[in-house]
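Hello Y.,

Per our agreement to keep a running log of every chain we model this quarter, I'm adding this entry. I've kept the format consistent with earlier entries: sequence first, then predicted structure.
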Amino acid sequence: MYDMKIAFFCGSLARGGSERVSLELAKYFLHEKAITTSIITIRYDNNEYELPDGIQRFSLSDSKNVNTYFEKLSFPKKIVKLRKIINQEKIDCMIVMGVPFCIYCIPACFGININLIVSERNDPTHFSGKTIVKICSRNLMKYADGFVFQTQDAFNFYSKVAHEKAVVIPNPVFTNENCIVGDKGNGQYFVNVGRLIEQKNQKLLIDAFSIIAKRFADYQLYIIGEGKLKESLQEKISFLGLDKRILLLGAKKTEELLFIIRNSRGFILSSNFEGVPNALIEAMSLGIPCISTDCPCGGPKSLIETGKNGVLVTVGDCLSLSNAMEFLIQNPKQASMMGKEAEKIKQLLSIEVIGRRWFEFIDYIYKFKENKSNA
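Predicted structure for the entry above:
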């Protein structure tokens, strides 16, 4: 097992959840299990995560834009290049971080002695790509050797192809040694972290906070992240006359981001759908009371028990979200107790725990495949 070579396959190393999980698991395999680990991406991107020492990266394209005419024409060449990388690097196990990427990985691995594990990274009922990609990738994924899902709901969705070759493993808590320690929950503001896109539904959050703004004159809302909806969100904030109360702070470096979260009155996730949200896990690990929509495919409800370590609200329910914020303001002792309970997630989802579960599953797939071939 320890002589194996593992590769993670993802779109790029842009600052998203699956990319971060890929890098953290790659570091775990390299440093804790002494396994040679690499990252294979379709392309390079702007504002990418830094590649950790000791981990090699390969890219199927030098372009940052996969939507150009010539990039689309080069799709078969990417499959050929991926197959060449797998053979040259003698990769034993490839972990595909997203079902849509099966359109590259399954054809590239055809006839090669490699263990292929596919991991769904979002809510499968909300596929945002092209229909042809959805159909092809979901038909191709059944040829994989194993499957990792973030939630039981996602597992159930794919139950016809998963069976005994699948496991549910949530995302790990990312280390926060760089966090600037301060008084938890002291700030008179709420914070939201995420891309400014429809999925994250910051419009709902703005509407909910507009109710809070009328009742609590000293409170603010900080929205951290970048995205295509930034301009329209700012217009909405200005229309409500809340330019000084709701601030779009853009992207922040890790140290500053963790400081802002740790000192907030509460963290809010307003998404329409998610996998297992890294931002929510990180906020909980900092001991901050969190409010989240109970969105598919079940990530938040797998983390939060309402009243114990946070609050779940119905997706799209503005009044419920506003009431939850008011509850945290009006009940600081209960909010603090929720934060302390939430902080226990650091032990439950540590990289050591989650990394070991991934390692054990890879070992299981190896043995399952070996026993099947010997039968």
